[in-house]
Amino acid sequence: MSVPASPRDAVILGGGLVGMTLAIALARQGMTTHVVDAADPSDTTAADFDGRASAISTASWNLYTNLGMADALVAKGSPIDAIAVTDGMKPGRIDFRPTAEEGSLGRMFANRDLRLAMYAVAAGCPEITFHTRAKVVSRERDAHGVKVTLADGQVLAGALLVGAEGRASPTRDEAGFTPAKWSYGHRAIISGLTHEKPHGNTAWEIFYPAGPFALLPLLDDPDSGPDGKHRSALVWTVAETNAAGVLALSDRAFLAEVEKRMGDIFGKLAIGAGRSSYPLNFHHTARVTSDRLVLVGDAAHGMHPIAGQGLNLGLRDVAAFAEVLAEGARLGLDPGDAQTLARYERWRASDTLMVATATDVLTRLFGLPGKLPSAVRRLGMGGVQRLPTLKRWFMDEARGMSGDLPELLRG
């Protein structure tokens, strides 16, 4: 027998970094949500869960600040003061370094720390009802609202259904959305490094035909003495056919391969965290709304991590959707109002398409092997290095501070 639960303004399917942040944003404006997640927070916040880290742009940091998450995070993230972009460590690299007035290009956080801060803030929001380790068995939408039935018999009702389950969103697929999608035939190898020399808060993006090789600054290990161990996160893209072999390498052999690709910029290296991996693919859904349904984050758009924009793009979805819902509420509109959802779709369409297309083009451009493509790339990079206006445009894009920004993303 179905067990009814109190109706809410929205039922959010997916309680990850995007779904739960949306719930917090809606709670800040007095809107109530059911948040349903298949995972257990005690698992996803475990120290050894997946080892991933995320670059949080300036705009996303503004969102976290406005939602009350920044105080818990500020001491745990490494600022990104510069980004070095190079084609295989050859001459002709680009150095992106904003002025002191512009601030950093973002901050690096372990995803675990982002989740801990997010769950702590959500726990203080009575507007959020969190259903963990929950399996959805049916979704219903009609002119009057939405209903989600869970495997334990609970029926969650709301005015709006939000699909935020990530790339494999069953809500998106069940609703009949048909995203453009393809696989890159690559896999990202994730690990942590400790190293002899400080990283200087610089993120390195080193491009090879097999895929990008990224070194992302983390805070020094506070438990290793007064000076700490210098740490960086590694995201190494390899062909899918080679991934199992790379994961199976001994630590010594793995470090030898890493050193071949980064030289001695950090001095002596050691393994600082275990290895994990995930496949790289692309998908983009042109439509992100339907009757009383909206998609946010990776449920709507997934891309190569080449520019570190995946999570940031999802957080821009959050800020924009929270703003259109707040404006609709002030006009007395239902959260599932078709005009409100259409405004969100129009607002996000150009940004998501531009970012998704740009990352795909960069992936393919830097994946071209041979001396001539490399020479052409380095010539173009040298041109960008010499043009301050163009460099500033790229930096504004990396910081997420360009275009029509929602209020929550502004400083």
Provide the helix percentage. Answer: 25-40%
- Please write the CATH class name: Alpha Beta
**E-strand count:** 20
Provide mean pLDDT, rounded.
Answer: 88
Please tally the helical runs, counting DSSP H or I stretches of 4 or more residues: 12
| Count of folded domains | 1
Largest sheet: 9 strands, mixed
CATH fold-type name: FAD/NAD(P)-binding domain
The CATH superfamily turns out to be: FAD/NAD(P)-binding domain
Describe the structure.
The strands form three sheets. Strands 1, 2, 3, 9, 10, 11, 12, 18 and 19 form a nine-stranded mixed sheet that branches. An eight-stranded mixed sheet has the order 7-6-14-15-16-13-17-20. Strands 4-8-5 form a three-stranded antiparallel sheet. It has a single domain (3-181, 282-409), classed as FAD/NAD(P)-binding domain, CATH 3.50.50. The protein is globular. The protein has twelve helices and 20 strands. The protein has helices spanning 19-27, 41-44, 58-66, 70-73, 111-123, 170-174, 240-248, 251-262, 310-330, 338-366, 371-386, 388-399, and strands at 3-4, 8-13, 33-36, 53-56, 78-79, 82-87, 94-96, 107-110, 128-131, 136-142, 145-150, 154-163, 180-195, 202-208, 211-221, 229-239, 269-284, 289-290, 293-295, 301-302. Helix 1 packs parallel to helix 5. The chain is 35% helix and 31% strand. With 411 residues, it is an alpha/beta fold. Helix 1 (19-27) links the parallel strand 2 and strand 3 (33-36). The mean pLDDT is 88.
